Every structure is written in structure tokens, then in C-alpha cells.
Amino acid sequence: MMQPQIILLKEGTDTSQGKPQLISNINACQIISEAVRTTLGPRGMDKLIVDGRGKALISNDGATILKELDIVHPAAKTLVDIAKSQDAEVGDGTTSVVLLAAEFLKQAKPFVEDSVHPQIIVKSYRKAVNKAVARIKEISVPVKKDDPIELRQLLERCASTSLCSKLVAGQKEYFSKMVVDAVMALDVLLPLDMIGIKKVQGGALEDSQLIIGVAFKKTFSYAGFEMQPKTYSNLKIALLNIELELKSERENAEIRLDNVEEYQAVVDAEWNILYEKLQKLHESGAKVILSKLPIGDIATQWFADRDMFCAGRVVDEDMKRTQKACGGSIISTVQNMNDSVLGRCDKFEEIQVGKERYNILTGCKQAKTCTLILRGGAEQFIEETERSLHDAIMITRRAMKNDSVVAGGGAIEMELSRYLRDYSRTIAGKEQLLIAAIARALEVIPRQLCDNAGFDATNILNKLRQKHATGGMWYGVDITNEDIADNFQATVWEPAVVKINALTAACEAACLILSVDETIKNPKSDAGGQPGAGRGRGRPMR
Asked: Is pLDDT of 529 > 60?
């Protein structure tokens, strides 16, 4: 007797499960990795992405590319998430983490097809990655933080290694110094929001400059602005959230008057309120007045007559950074103003950068801050420069906090591959094959570096395997000479934390995808949006 079919899910629900579902997910992740594979390393290519509004974006940053691609496959989205987490946590290595995760899955595919249970694969992968992370910690080279010259050299080398694979690789020496200066100018906690980045089109990349202080673009100003002084020393700053202009009447305001004198009294009262505010600001001793809201022409002229500087409509981010750097408070009333609500700094000046004018506050008393002003031709180029510098800044911060480095250029991956291959031979059973698979997967980084540079990957990998087997721990791909080299001597350095984070994130993503054996998609509900359901114009009330 046939059993009646039991329907649990709504009709039209798409369910796929078992081995075909797992292999489909692995194939989807392979396609994602193909999208960013060619961007890896100093000879990596850039991607031109055009969004729905026709805005073009040029980048070779793995996380940026994957964010811009509108990926809908649920398993493939996991790779996008690990690229974003790597970008947020460490700043660099976003392409590497996607490649590693995809390669781990590729190596697992034959085992899945041969009906090895996914949980056995997951367990072996976790064990292998834990061994690899322990090995990185064991062989990474600590840096002497007590020697400022040596620390600076380390940071510059880490920053230039990060910039090697970016559009600005030609100016990496110039920018690596600038990035290290920016990070070293910060407080002990190295807050990222205290580094401002401003972009000014025009000029060459080398015209970019670092200002140890707060810099923001000159805001819209009224007549009388040019009469205000443009430099001050040892000054007080008032930060306001007040409008300093005569307000237009509300549309429905109504005042009933009997004679002209009464009307004049209303107008005078309005002017007196404004003048009272201006007088209070002048008496407070502040020389620079910054406000989030507009400062009108009357106030601008009034301040100019008293040798004071004002700027209205200052961007919220710049206002907050000025407050953190110079102290004081952003106030919304001028009553009872005292010294405690005013900020202080050593110098204020206005300078010309390209066609823009910038207001600059240096020698801030409260906290240390800096601003990078980037120059360049095309808008996309400056934006990619900003993303590149963001990666380099993140790497430099990580290197200052975690004081150990490893050699880049595929050297650490080859060493871990050799170590895991040797370790796998000491284990019996399926784990031996799975740990050896992880060892093979780690070779994807040096292989891809060779492919992107147009080298013979097989030849170079054979040389690397031989060197690592005979104790050449830091040998990696030498991009400039199409050969192998000791990358530690060649100062291709990366913070150990970048590699540890990339390995653990890639392993977690691979294990997550291997653990999924069924996908259920609910059909979109068609109930919503039917005409006549609500009360329309001609529909009577019930």
C-alpha cells in the first residue's frame, strides 16, 4: 500500500539537498574566487565595475570588488562576508582569504564525491588550520619596539608591502612614509577616526600631503569673508550648533499690528537677538567660530570687523574630529559660555590646495590627529588611492599593536604547506589525506602570484618546494626577477596577524559551507500589492 505524500512546505518552495547541493555550493564559491583571482599580488590586474547608475569604479581590492558585485547565491555570500570581515579586522589580505577559502573547498570536492562525510572533512580542516596558526606564531619574527628607528623601518616595510599590489605601487616609498607618519602621529590606542582623508582633484600623486592636525575644506561663505584674518596663533575655538542669521518668517506666521512703531519693534527685536549672540561669542575670547549650521552675511561681516574668523555649514565628521582634537564642546546656546566649552590649538591658517581652500588647525591640545590631503587626476584614481592608503594604514596599525612579522610573497604559505605535508604523514586514516589536501591548497597563493605575473608557476613552485624542504624557510616568489628569493631579506614583510586572520576566516567559511546539506527557498508571496485591497479614492467606508 502506497503511503500518502505528506506536504510540509508551501507549494512552489524550492528545496535541494544532499551531495549535489553541497557540490553546487562548492562550484558557486569557485566562481566567486575566479572574479578576484587575477587581482592578487604586485602584478595583479584591476577590475572596472559599473553600477546601475553608470558610475565606474576601478579597484583591485578583493573586498571592494565583492561588495560591488550583487551576489545572490546564499553560499557564495559567505565568501563576501569573510572578505568584509578581513577588511574590517586587518585591512589587507582580502583577496588571499577568498582564494584560500575557495581552494579549501576545491580540495574537499573529490572527498565529498567519494562520499566522505562532511563532518570528517570539517574536523580535519580545523585541526590542520590550528596547527598552521601555531606554526606561524612559532616562526614569526618579533620586532624590538624599544628601538624607534628599527620600529619605523618595520612599519614602512609593512606599509610598502601592502601598497605593492595597488595602483599607487609606483609611489609606494612616498606613501609608505606618509602612512607611517600618520599612524605614529596618533595616540596610544591608534583610533582610525582621527585620521581624516580629503580628496582634491588635479595635480600629481606626489602633491599629496600629510597635515598633523585637522584640515577641512573651506565652506560656503558670504561677503565680508575675505576681510577676516586667515592665520592665528594660540587661539580659542567656539564650536556651535547655532544658526547665526536672520530667519525668514514661517509661512503661516501671523502678527497683527496697529501701527508702524510696533512693526519696527518686532524687526529690532529680531536683530537684537542676533547681535546679542554675536556679542557673547566675541566676549568669550574665541577667535575662530565654527558652526554646523549657516552663518549669515551680517554675522560674517560683524566677525570680520572684530578680526574673528567664522565658517558655517561645517561637515559633522570634521566638527567631531575638531572637538576631539582641540577639546571643548559643541554648544547649542551662547548663554553662560566659559573657557571649558572652548577648544584650543596652537595655530590656525587657511591654505590653497589646487583649486580648493583648506582651513587647517595644528598643535591641537586635547588629542592627536592628522589629515591626508590626496591629489590626482581622475576621480576614480583618487578613490582607489584612498582605498589603498586605508589598507596600508590598517596594516601599519596592526603591526604597531602586534609586534611580529612574517615574509610575504607566498613564503609563509609554502612553509606552512611543507609543515602540514610532513605532519600529515605522521597520522593514519582519512585525516592524513585531508591534511595533505590543506597543504596543497595553501600553494594557491604563490601559484596565483606567478600566474598573474606571467611566470611558469610549475617551475617556480618546484624550486620553492625544494628550498623549503632544505630549510629555506622564508623563500617566496621574486616578482622582479622571475625567480625565487629570500623575501625576509628582500623586506617583503607582513604582520603575522594578517596571515593568522586570513587562515582562520577561510577555514571557518569552508567549514560552514561544507556543513550545509540542504537549501530551502521560500517562494515570494504574491499576496501583497493586489489592487482594491485597501480603501481607494472612490471606495466607500464600511
From this structure: no
Q: Whole-structure pTM over 0.85, yes or no? A: no
- C-alpha 282/C-alpha 277 separation (Å) is 9
- 3-class secondary structure per residue, 234-261: EEEEEEECCCECCCCCCCCCCCCCCCHH
Catalytic residues: 61, 94-95, 391
Report the helix count and the strand count for the chain, using DSSP H and E. Answer: 16, 19
The radius of gyration computed from the CA coordinates of the chain, to the nearest angstrom, equals: 31
H or E element in which residue 420 lies:
helix 411-424
CB atoms within 10 A of CB 531: 6
**Per-residue model confidence as pLDDT tens digits over 482-503:** 899 999 898 888 889 999 999 9
Cell output for 126: 580545523
| DSSP one-letter code for 471 | T
Residue 298's identity, in one-letter code, is I
**Alpha-carbon distances of 461 from 154, 226, 443, 467, 475, rounded to whole Å:** 28, 65, 8, 10, 11
CA distance 438 to 436: 5
Note whether 479 and 453 are within 8 A (CB). Answer: yes
How do residues 185-207 score in pLDDT, each as one tens digit? 888 888 888 888 999 888 888 88
